[in-house]
Every structure is written in structure tokens, then in C-alpha cells.
Amino acid sequence: MYLRCRLHPYPTPGQQSALVRAFGCARVVFNDRIAARRDAYSAGEMFPTASELSKRLITNAKKTPKRGWFAEVSASILQQALRDADRAYRSYFESLVGRACSVGVPRYKSHRDRRQAVRFTNNAGRLVMAGGRLRLPKGAWLVELETMPDHVHLIVEVDPQYGVHKLVKAVKGRRSCVLRIDFPWLRSKLPTLWTNSYFAATVGGASLSATRRFVDHLKAR
């Protein structure tokens, strides 16, 4: 038996931006999956397996400047987009032999379509919390950003279940992608732009306002 719940979310502006990124990434992966099948059919080649597509369209794509922003969303969203495309083709082929109701061949999704959607699995960190709050993967929201001549300060709200190490990895991955786009010579000079290490410490129970004043004080110096 499947349980279906209908929720009316009220995301903050930062969460709205994160959801838009999730919708966009899922749509691009779905369309890449459609394109891969069409290319294989046109070339008369065997269609790649699900694992090969996952590696090519998600894992390897994250390492390219063109698709580096995939790292900003949960991998579960991208995997589900691939499965949705597979299900669409499976339903289409079953309809051709009379095993299912008639459906058309899967088509590309348009960014102009207002019916954007993503799907989360139960093991992807989804949880309805007390007070009607819905926690989703990639649960980190940027509260404030301050740039300095040689470094930046980020005040980030992070879900405890998300983990600081995942946040650091996401920030490093995205910035590395952007820097390689802005400075192409970095692609050949350095294999990686960041080390694997990082340092994290508490602020001694200081409030958010106190932390903001500390950052403002550093900027004024």
C-alpha cells in the first residue's frame, strides 16, 4: 500500500532558489536521458545500460563545466530523473504491444512548463518534522555572505543531518567549476583547486546577531 500526502510548502527566498535549481537539474538530466536514447537509435547502436547512463549523465557530467552545477542538488533527485525517463520509455514500449494503455513517445521537458517536479526517495533524507516542516536533501541555506580581499565569510544554516563535510564539498565543487570557467588556464595547470581538508569550529554558543557583528567588524578593519 502506498501512502500519499499533499503538502502546501511555504519556502523562504533561499529555499525557493534551491528548489528552482533542483527542478532545473532534474529536467536537464531527464532531457539528457531522452537525447542519449535518440542518439543511440539514430546511430544504430545498442542502448547504454542504466549504470552506464548514471555514470555518464550524472557522475562524469558533474566534473564538466557544462554540468558542474549538478553538484548543487541531491544526487537522489538526479537518479530519480533518470528513472522517470526509463519509466516513460517502458510505458511507451508496453503500450505498443498492448500491455498498457496507449501513451506517446517520451518528449523533452521545457523550462517554460510551469509543471516542474522532482521526486525524493525515503532514504534521501526526506522527513516531515514537527510543526509541519519538511526537510529535504541538500539541507543547507545561505544566510549571509561577506567578501574580503583574500577570503569570504559565509553564514550558513545547515541541517544537522546534512553534515558540515557535505556542505564544504558542495561549496568547493561549485567554486572550482566557476573558477575554471572564468580562468580556463586553471584546467590544465592544476588537477584540483582545493585540498580535501577543512577546519570547522563552533562559535561558543554565540547568537546569529553576534556572529554577524563579528563579520561586520572584520570588514571594517
From TrEMBL:
Pfam family, one: Y1_Tnp
Highest taxon, organism lineage: Bacteria
Domain Transposase IS200-like positions: 105-218
Molecular functions per Gene Ontology: DNA binding; transposase activity
Source organism of this protein record: Saccharopolyspora karakumensis
Entries under NCBIfam families matching the protein: transpos_IS200
GO BP: DNA transposition
InterPro entries for this protein: Transposase_17 (IPR002686), Transposase_17_sf (IPR036515), Transposase_put_HTH (IPR021027)
Official protein name in the record: IS200/IS605 family transposase
Gene that this polypeptide is encoded by: tnpA
